[in-house]
Design goal:
Shape: rod-shaped
CATH superfamily of the largest domain: GAF domain
Largest sheet: 6 strands, antiparallel
Distance between the termini: 209 Å
Number of domains: 2
Strand order of the largest sheet: 3-2-1-6-5-4
CATH architecture of the largest domain: 2-Layer Sandwich
Helix content: 55-70%
Pfam families: GAF_2
CATH class of the largest domain: Alpha Beta
CATH topology of the largest domain: Beta-Lactamase
Radius of gyration: 53 Å
Protein name: Diguanylate phosphodiesterase
Strand content: 5-15%
Order of helices and strands: HHEEEHEEEH
Number of helices: 4
Keywords: Coiled coil
Number of strands: 6
Length: 278
C-alpha cells in the first residue's frame, strides 16, 4: 500500500515536472515571441516614423514651394496692377486732353464759321479777338497786318496795348519782323512770363497769318490769363488753324472793304457825271 502511495507520489511528481517543464517552455516561447513581437513593433514604428518624417518633409517642401510660387504670383499681380493703374491714369489724362482738344476744335469750328460768315472787316477783327481771348486764353495781345507799300507791320487790333496802337515794325526787324518775313512762328518759355514785364518787341508768341506761303500779318501774344499756366499742345494746333482761317477771313474782308470803297467811289463819280448839267 505504501509502495503504491510512493509510486503514486512519484508519478504525480513526474507529471508536475513535465507540466512545469512544459510551462517553462511555454513561458520561454511566450517571452521569445514577445521579444520578437516587440522587435517587430519597434522596427515597424521606426520605419513608420521615418516614412512619416519623409512624408511630412515632402509635404512641407511642397507647401513652401507653393507659398513661394504664390508670393511671386502676388508680386507679379501687384506689378501688373501698378502698370494697369498707371495706364488708367495715362488714359484718363489723355482722355481729358482729347476732350479738351475736341471742345477747342469744336469751338474753333464755330469761330471759323463766324469768321467766314461776314465780310465786314471790323467784325472779322472782333471775332479774331474773341477767339484769341476765349480759346487761346490771352490777356494782352495784338493783331498786326503787313503794309506792302510801306513794307512794315501796323497794329489793327489789340487788347491791353493801347499805348502801342500806333507803333510800327519794319519787315525783318526783331522777333515780330522776322516772323513776318520768314513765316515761321515764335514761342518763348512760359515760365518766364511771371518774371518779365510786357515788352512790345518781345512777345511770348508770334504767329504768322499766312495764306499759303504769303504772310499778310502776325498775331502777337504778350500775356496769358492767370488761370492759364502756359501753352499746351492743343494751343499750337489752335495757332495753326487760327492763323490760316483768320488770315483768309481778314484778307477776304479787307479786299471786300477795298472793293466796296472803290465801288462806292466809282458809283459816286458816275452819280456826279449823270447829275452834271447838260
Amino acid at each position: 500500500m505504501e509502495k503504491e502511495k510512493k509510486e503514486d507520489i512519484f508519478k504525480k511528481s513526474e507529471e508536475f515536472l513535465q507540466l512545469f517543464q512544459k510551462t517553462k517552455e511555454f513561458m520561454e516561447e511566450l517571452l521569445n515571441e514577445n521579444a520578437r513581437l516587440r522587435y517587430k513593433i519597434a522596427t515597424i514604428e521606426t520605419k513608420g516614423t521615418s516614412s512619416d518624417t519623409e512624408y511630412y518633409q515632402k509635404q512641407l517642401q511642397e507647401l513652401q514651394h507653393n507659398v513661394k510660387k504664390l508670393i511671386n504670383e502676388k508680386k507679379e499681380l501687384e506689378e501688373q496692377y501698378k502698370e494697369v493703374e498707371k495706364e488708367n491714369k495715362d488714359f484718363a489724362t489723355r482722355y481729358v486732353e482729347i476732350e479738351e482738344q475736341n471742345n477747342n476744335l469744336a469751338n474753333l469750328y464755330v469761330a471759323s464759321y463766324q469768321l467766314h460768315s461776314t465780310l465786314d472787316f471790323s467784325e472779322v477783327l472782333r471775332i479774331v479777338m474773341e477767339i484769341i481771348i476765349n480759346l487761346v486764353g490771352a490777356e494782352v495781345f495784338s493783331v498786326m497786318l503787313f503794309d506792302e507799300k510801306a513794307n512794315n507791320l501796323k497794329i489793327v487790333a489789340n487788347e491791353g496795348l493801347e499805348d502801342h496802337s500806333n507803333d510800327i515794325i519794319e519787315l525783318g526787324e526783331g522777333i515780330i519782323g522776322s516772323v513776318a518775313k520768314t513765316g515761321e512762328p515764335y514761342y518763348i518759355n512760359q515760365s518766364l512770363e511771371l518774371s518779365i514785364d510786357i515788352d512790345f518787341l518781345h512777345p511770348l508768341a508770334c504767329i504768322p497769318l499766312k495764306i499759303k506761303e504769303h504772310v499778310i500779318g502776325v498775331i502777337c501774344i504778350y500775356k496769358l490769363f492767370v488761370q492759364k499756366e502756359g501753352f499746351s499742345a492743343v494751343d499750337y494746333e489752335l495757332f495753326n488753324l487760327l492763323a490760316g482761317h483768320a488770315a483768309t477771313a481778314i484778307f477776304s474782308a479787307k479786299l471786300y472793304t477795298q472793293s466796296e470803297r472803290k465801288l462806292s467811289t466809282i458809283q459816286g463819280f458816275l452819280d456826279l457825271l449823270t447829275s452834271a448839267p447838260t
